[in-house]
Amino acid sequence: MKCFFSVLSCLAVLGAVAAQRQVAVQEGPLYRTEGSHITIWCNVSGYQVPSEQNFQWSIYLPSAPEREVQIVSTMDSSFPYAIYTQRVRSGKIYVERVQENSALLHITDLQARDAGEYECHTPNTDKQYFGSYSAKMNLVVIPDSLQTTAVPQTLHKVEQDPLELTCEVATETLQHSHLSVAWLRQRGSEKPVEVISLSRDFVLQSSSDYAQRQSLGEVRLDKLGSSTFRLTVFHLQPSDQGEFYCEATEWIQDPDGSWYPMTQKRSEGAVVNVQPTDKEFTVRLETDKRLYTVGEPVEFRCILEAQSIPDRYFAVSWAFNSSLIASMGPNAVPVLNSEFSHREARGQLKVAKESDSVFVLKIYHLRQEDSGKYNCRVTEREKTVTGEFIDKESKRPKNIPIIVLPITDNWVVKVPQHHQILPPGHLESSISVEVASNASIVLEGENLHLSCSIRTAGRPLGRFSVMWQLVDRQNRRSNIMWLDRDGTVQHGASYWERSSFGGVQMEQVQPNSFSLGIFNSRKEDEGQYECHVTEWVRAVDGEWQVVGERRASTLISITALETGFAVTAISRTPGVTYSDSFDLQCIIKPHYPSWVPVAVTWRFQPVGTVEFHDLVTFTRDGGVQWGDRSSSFRTRTAIEKAESSNNVRLSISRASDTEAGKYQCVAELWRRNYNNSWTRLAERTSNLLEIRVLQPVTKLQVSKSKRTLTLVENRPIQLNCSVKSQTSQNSHFAVLWYVHKPSDADGKLILKTTHNSAFEYGTYAEEEGLRARLQFERHVSGGLFSLTVQRAEVSDSGSYYCHVEEWLLSPNYAWYKLAEEVSGRTEVTVKQPDSRLKLSQAQGNLSVLETRQVQLECMVLNRTSAASQLLVEWFVWKPNHPERETVARLSRDATFHYGEQAAKNNLKGRLHLESPSPGVYRLFIQNVAVQDSGTYSCRVEEWLPSPSGTWYKRAEDTAGQMAVRVVRPDAALQVDTVVPNATVSEKAAFQLDCSIVSRSSQDSCFAVAWYSLRTKAGGRRGSLVLEDGEEEEEEEEEGEEEEDPTERMALLSVGPDAVFGPEGSPWEGRLRFQRLSPLLYRLTVLQASPQDTGNYSCRVEEWLLSPQKEWYRLTEEESAPIGIRVLDTSSTLQSIICSNDALFYFVFFYPFPIFGILIITILLVRFKSRNSSKNSEGKNGVPLLWIKEPHLNYSPTCLEPPVLSIHPGAID
User: Fold this and answer.
1) Three-state secondary structure along 154-218?
2) I need a labelling partner for 202 at 20 to 30 A (CA). Which of 91, 724, 835, 1027 fits?
3) How far apart are CA 700 and CA 714, in angstroms?
């Protein structure tokens, strides 16, 4: 049981692992054009339930890469954000569910703002989260720059006219893309038909309607230059009528390796009207009669009626009861089917071309089974530029039926009977016989015609019986035929069979004239021919009696056919060049008449073989029979037999390797027997003729000029291969491009373009990843080939050359390589761009106050490339520190980084970077401190993109140095040194003002302290104002020479942070602090006592806040001593009056104007004492009695004025 649960646990774990959710999205980046329809697939796997999943699509725009913008969802109609809501509702953006776990995002009208990072999210449907729930990909939207233009026009053409149309296709897409171009024809509302197209892989192809014409060269598509595509239709047909336009498609390769059609454009159309020529023709079938007997001949004539027949091509086929008998092409060479070919071989049938318009079918000996329907079919053919034939219109006439009847059993010559009874005793014969022949010497096979004429002295008395006999050379007599008195014809035993076939005939031409015909004579028919005539008369008893006999003879000599039979083969062109013609003559001796059946066979032994095979046979009845291995000869061979002789000429056109070898002529002499059988009398074999078929002498010349090419990477390498001369205008070229590196022994193949424009990438292109960077072009001149290596890299340096192969089309339409040649080399050096990076070398010194801002400018005066990326680094040399330290760095991707110096000097919050214009970088150090002093400079690295997309550092430069000295503000603190003395009464209050005349910085804070100045024991009271001014001067001089005898006692101190110090014990509870202005501080001493009499001063410390947010004391200054005299309550009235200026003026001026003179006298008396007390008066000589107390009521114990705050720097 434990084991069982362990297994379950393991299975549960494995199940959990297997159920890990995975979301996959189409790999990016995808490049798509504006206005196109894009789909992005997304699928999810590894989930448990349910089977149908939901999909949500969002985008992260480049302007806000962290912000998700929702587009569309399969589960929530309110999912899209406002900018996508309308497009989703209108169906321009939607999600197509392909399967339960797979979906496609459709954007039908792509816009530029649709570029960004797309995220496909699938909400979790399981109990727990495990795996990934979203995936992202990038979409780049580029402008649609494809342009397809053609001249709109209407053309009126005649059938067989050529047609040429051009189309301009151009694109400005920066990404690497391929173009495919197609020409189409549209007729009305019919579906467009592709005429010919060039695929993105540079492969030419056509639809089924034009495939045959394209393979024969009738339809062509040529690229002229970089953007022109020309359509050529050499022989227009009426079916070509319609609107022609070109359609271009721009393809881009997605990251998964597949090609995607980004955009497609079509040009304006050209309307082509094709006027058909008068190509009508009619066919008529004729024969002499419809009823025949077995053995009779029949001739059918197929008559063609048309215009310009010699300039046109027709093929004829014969049919019997809808079964093919024979066919004959435009070359007039008949081809018979197996059944009729045997009859044709035996001379019983013939198919021939009698004239350009008459075609004949002859059957020399009809059979009863030949009864049936006969017909012919005529098909017009069109000859293409390559020599091939294309079937066009076909016609046939009505069938002609014939009937073949069997022959009768007996054939006799009817002789008229005369019944006359002669008188008795009249039995003498008066006849004479004469034999004549058509010739005494005849050629075997010729017909013999013998006549036997009976002459009588009077009227014939009875009847005649006539017998023909032959006495041969050995004196052997044989009966040929005889005609008895009753008119019955009898055959001799040896001539019975021949007679039955009509080979021997006897006929009573006239009553007294009898003929013997021996047809198709033989050598054994030679000899003495006798005509034996017997005259018969009827006796009285009614019996026939012989009256008399007469005979006559003639000698006939027959020459055997094989006598002198010989054959000779000759040729005037034993050596020919490809596509030339040559004739072979088979001369037969002697010159036989045309009726002599001679069969001539041309035999052929190809080069490299040991056996002859029959090529073609001119049969004994004039037919042509091709050998089993002569298919390559049929369309290019004509066989002709001379009418006046049996000489046979074999003419072979468009010679090729197939026709090279030994030829031999074999002649057979035949004789037709009486029973229509054939006997071969003799066979003669001619001499051998060797025909050599040579390839044309090549005229191929490839430019051998050497070239040196130096260029900067990322530029295209333009390689040219120029064919200066070629053997034929129809030459095709295979171009192989090689590169040779110094480290390699041999060149490596980059690209091969075959003679039929197919592309094959070499191993070097595959290893180096050059496929996407290669572009091949054949220029309109035809002999200039260009290979462009886009986005050249340094590794592409090497020696480039092309290997050109010249190919020609052999007469049997097979391409063969005639010659090859290597071009001169192009030495290519690809280097990195010359470094032109230059920074401003301006030096400078800068002294700046602490807490101010320092601007460090780094100016790039020149750079290597506008597409480069710059890395800018600022560094500093500190005093007494030899090593430089990095302050900040701006990376190539515009990311700002702090250096180690920033961490040390707490610069992270004080650095600010600006780039107001390209190449100008400004680093601001805000709130500088003394520690920031040093020599600053910047260093710039320039990075360039390699053609493969990686970045490398091309150059670096350092700018001029800037010496920065950060100083603290100069101490400018001044405290008012002109301070009036004061005399107050006991229990009154006196004020101690501390006035700051100037400060070092507007941001400074102050610490203020008041002191009471007492003379140390044994010293003088220097703090009181003396009556005698001279004595005071003496004490000052002594104070300079001796140590300061003054003892300081602090009354009150206020720190820069507005924190009060303890009050001095004598004044505790009697002090009141006031800050009347940012630069005026007042301390009021209440309840003055005589012990308060003395000198007072205030000391001011100026404090500043350092950039490190720490306060430091910049300077301090102490005011001049203030003399305070507190009068005892027992003081005289005079002192009271004199101590109060208001009372003084009131008493002495206003109440007693009449005593002015007295007052003046008193004033003169006191003149001396007033001079001695000037130092104790207020500013501008105004006595202290005139200083009014401010209208501020502070409690003696309240030391915090309302405007004060408890932190430094708040006292302003």
Assistant:
1) EEEEECCCCEEEEEEEECCCCCCEEEEEEEEEECCCCCCEEEEEECCCCCEECCCCCHHHHHCCC
2) 724
3) 35
